[in-house]
Amino acid sequence: LRERGAEDRRALTELLDSSYVCHLGVVVDGAPRVMPTAFGVDYDGPDRGGTLYLHGSVAARSLVAAGGVDVCVTVTQLDGLVLARSAFHHSMNYRSAVIHGRARRVDDEQERETALNAIVDHIVPGRSAELRSNTKRELAATLVLALPLYDASVKSRSGPPQDDDQDVLAGRVWAGVVPVKTEVGPAITAGDVGDGVGVPWTVENVLTR
Amino acid sequence: LRERGAEDRRALTELLDSSYVCHLGVVVDGAPRVMPTAFGVDYDGPDRGGTLYLHGSVAARSLVAAGGVDVCVTVTQLDGLVLARSAFHHSMNYRSAVIHGRARRVDDEQERETALNAIVDHIVPGRSAELRSNTKRELAATLVLALPLYDASVKSRSGPPQDDDQDVLAGRVWAGVVPVKTEVGPAITAGDVGDGVGVPWTVENVLTR
Questions:
Q1: What is the pLDDT of residue A4?
Q2: Nearest-angstrom CA–CA distance, B36 and B184
Q3: Disruptive mutation site among A29, A63, A83 for chain B (greatest number of B CBs within 10 Å)
Q4: Does A102 touch chain B if contact means CB atoms closer than 8 Å?
Q5: pLDDT for the residue B6
Q6: Cβ separation of A98 and B72 shorter than 8 Å?
Q7: How confident is the model at residue A2 (pLDDT cuts 50, 70, 90)?
Q8: Measured between CB atoms, does A151 come within 8 Å of chain B?
């Protein structure tokens, strides 16, 4: 069991580290809302099992509603289309993590800085060190939420379709997998960047990883 | 306004048609659950604005819970990482559709067939015609839900980072966009497919689109 736990944990961190977007679910007026959003992770964060950080505008209703209540954050990577010989056995190869917990609004200044750096560094590791500090005005406009990584379950499917024997024996229909991958790059430099400012190694690392 | 409506509709259909996975949000025991799942679309379906179809096992608790209640289905495509000169202006280029509505359990046999074909054909257009019919046993094990496409809102961001003037003038930090794309293929034929059975044109079309 302990080994299984470590394996799940490794699968969770690998999935989170390689994903750019999560889907945050929150209940507003009794109805579910699901919104895509960026996130950051501090595996040594103050919450049980480490901390997942979300942020957004203080004016974002769904995000404000998520503070102090039960939320669900789901991270999904599609790895392939599984084309079987029957509709029933069509499937997807994927990895997904579903994290349940109570979202905590982060008010501590130090932790807010840690969280906002984690979110930027999740997109491009090392990026936050290249940037100026957040201004008071920016901080006042930003809501930060923390979610414990403790209650996370990872699911996945991989490999070829699993067809019924009689469909395989019939031998009529092609079956297989179409892999799906996320490709990044090449970087497009903004038009207002001066000639002397090149793509930094932090960004180059994202392009080649 | 009418033009804006047609534009939104076009953006919605383009996004749905090019996405393989949606995130279904449902409230179970007062708490939100968000699960990734395949989907299909019938733009001429019986629901207001057309119909989005979901399916799964009759034993899937979250899916069963979604029948007859308010759900939220979100479809997201990440198009790029927007790397600004400040943490505050970091962003993502993306397109997302958020569809709210009451999920309807589909019991009519004809509509269930339409829905299941739509889900398979959403993965590979034309695929359902290559497959045998669903068996009674398969149909009995499958729950189908319908969601009106009427209450759908599409949001997107595109283009370069929008930095503060003073950060641009400082001229110190690189800024730009790292495009993100979904790549499919090449197809991997299952090991138990006979030598005479080649990749069908339906699958080839997916690989080259």
A1: 72
A2: 19
A3: A83
A4: no
A5: 87
A6: no
A7: low
A8: no
Distance CA B188, CA B178 (A): 29
pLDDT at A1 over 80: no
Nearest CA-CA distance, residue B148 and chain A, Å: 16
B136 touching A (Cβ < 8 Å): no
Pick out chain B residues at pLDDT < 50: none
Task: Write the DSSP assignment of B138-169 as a string of letters.
Answer: HHHTEEEEEEESSSEEEEEE-SS----HHHHH
Residue of A nearest to B115 (CA): A87
> A207 and A187 in contact (C-beta within 8 Å)?
yes
What was the pLDDT predicted at A3? 72
Q: Say yes or no to pLDDT of A145 above 70.
A: yes
The residue whose two tokens read 């076009």 is B10
ipTM score of complex: 0.97
Share the mean pLDDT of chain A: 96
- Residue pointed to by tokens 């496409």: B149
Task: Write the DSSP assignment of A58-109 as a string of letters.
Answer: TT-HHHHHHTTSEEEEEEEEEEEEEE-SSSTT-EEEEEEEEEEEE-EE---H
- Any chain B CB within 8 A of the CB of A19? no
Contact yes or no for B92 and A38 at CB 8 A: yes
Phi and psi dihedrals of A24, rounded to 5? -95, 125
Using a cut of 0.90, tell me whether the model's pTM lies above it: yes
What the block records as the tokens of A109 is 């200044």
- Closest Cα of chain A to B122: distance in Å? 11
Find residue A179's DSSP bridge partners: A80
The two tokens of residue B34 are 């968000």
The SS3 call for residue A200 is coil
Q: How far is B42 from chain A (nearest CA, A)?
A: 17
Please, which residues have CB within 8 angstroms of residue A10's CB and are 6 or more apart in sequence?
Answer: none
pLDDT given at position B3? 72
A127 inside 8 A of chain B by CB? yes
Q: Which of B74, B92, B131 sits opposite A87 (nearest CB)?
A: B131
Which whole number is the average pLDDT over A88-100? 98
Q: Cα angle vertex B26, ends A55, A46, to 5°?
A: 35
Chain B residues whose CB is inside 8 A of the A190 CB are: 160-161, 163, 175-177
